[in-house]
Amino acid sequence: MQPRNMSMSGAVDLSAVKAAGEAKQKAEQARAAAAERGGADAPVSLVIDVDEAGFEAEVLQRSAEVPVVIDFWAEWCEPCKQLSPVLERLTREYAGRVLLAKIDADKNQMLMQQFGVQGIPAVFAVVAGQALPLFQGAAPEAQIRQTLDQLIQVSEERFGITGLQGVAGDDAEQPAQAPEAPEDPALVAAQQALDAGDLNGAVQAYQNVLTGDPGNVEARVGLAMAELLRRVQGLDAQQVRKDAADRPGDVEAQLRAADLDMAGGHVEDAFGRLVETVKRTSGDDREAARVRLLDLFEVIGAEDPRVVTARSALARVLF
Question: Domain Thioredoxin: where (predicted)?
Answer without folding.
Answer: 36-153
